[in-house]
Amino acid sequence: MEALLDLYQRPYNPDEPVLCMDESLKELQQAVYFPLQTAPGRPARFDYLYKPAGASTLLLCVEPLHGWRYLQVRDHRKFEDWAHFMRDVLDTYYPHTSTVHLVVDNLNIHTPAAFYHTFPPDEAKRLVDRLTFHFTPVHGSWLNMAEIEFGVLKRQCLSQRFASRDLLNQAIQAWFDTRNSLSSKISWHFTVAEARTKLRHLYPSFDP
User: Fold this and answer.
1) Is residue 37 assigned to a domain?
2) Where is pLDDT greater, at 201 or 103?
3) CA-to-CA distance for 116 and 142, rounded, in angstroms?
4) Rounded to whole angstroms, how far apart are CA atoms 19 and 65?
5) 158-162: long-range contacts (C-beta < 8 A, 24 or more apart)?
6) To the nearest whole number, what is the mean pLDDT of the chain?
7) C-alpha 84: how far from its chain's center?
8) Side-by-side strand order, sheet with 68-74
9) What digits encode the pLDDT tens for the residues 14-67?
10) Domains contained in the chain, number
11) Is residue 156 one of the residues assigned to a domain?
12) Which of 63, 100, 123, 200 has the fewest CB atoms within 10 Å, i.e. the most exposed one?
């Protein structure tokens, strides 16, 4: 935990960016009845009935100190999905960066092995060599700032129904394009000193 908190306290360095990555699930729901149209002084009204239309996996990566984020909507959450997502992030947005610090939780797909499972050895090694992994503690995924970004996404974009993956993808694309244009950053204040005070139950006790 303390190593991760120290990482968050480093000043912004574009040559060694800190990225936080996480995933979530969004259920797709088709309306049974058409919503009532809006009118002056009357908000849109939706019937509570819906038909399940599957679910989509959301893969999110955010660079908190730079105010940049990127999302992909996929049908699955497998080794291949994560590996392709991370390759897109590295090669498209950080092509000249030799070291990227990646904060992830302990999900089994968040490992260098995912690249070797997906790509030929030379390509997998090329990607792995560019990443420095930083894992959140077990039961400590709240230390991943990507969860903060997902909270904003859910409040501002995902509170509505989406009938298809295409509609969901369009809404998410518009959302993160707007967030990126504003360079919306995440300000992290929880430090090692605060952890030692507020989470004393995690530290061994020493008799004087």
Assistant:
1) no
2) 103
3) 28
4) 9
5) 158/26, 161/29, 161/31, 161/46, 161/50, 162/26, 162/28, 162/29
6) 89
7) 15
8) 68-74, 50-63, 18-31, 100-104, 131-135
9) 999 999 999 999 988 666 556 556 668 776 665 565 676 688 899 999 999 999
10) 1
11) yes
12) 200
Other beta carbons within 10 Å of 133: 13
Torsion of CA 82, 87, 88, 94, to 10 degrees: 130
| Residue-level pLDDT at 208 | 54
The mean pLDDT of 170-188, rounded to a whole number, is 93
Q: Could you tell me if residue 136 is inside a domain?
A: yes
The enclosing domain of 93 has a CATH number of 3.30.420.10
Q: Cα(2)–Cα(125) distance, rounded to whole angstroms? A: 28
Phi first, then psi: give them for residue 61, nearest 5 degrees.
-130, 130
Q: Within 10 A of 41 (CB to CB), how many other CB atoms are there?
A: 5
Q: Cα 26–4–68 angle (5° rounding)?
A: 50
Whether 43 is covered by a domain: the verdict is no
The contacts of residue 70 (CB under 8 Å, 6+ apart) are: 60, 61, 62, 88, 89, 93, 176
Q: Which residues of 97-126 are buried (b: 16+ CB within 10 A; e: fewer)?
A: eeebbbbbbeeebbbeebbbebbeeeebee
Q: Using a pLDDT cut of 90, give the percent of the chain over it.
A: 63
Cβ proximity of 173 and 69 under 8 Å: no
DSSP, collapsed to helix, strand or coil, labels residue 50 as: strand
- Report phi then psi at 73, rounded to 5: -105, 125
Please give the residue range of the domain that contains residue 163.
Answer: 2-32+48-195
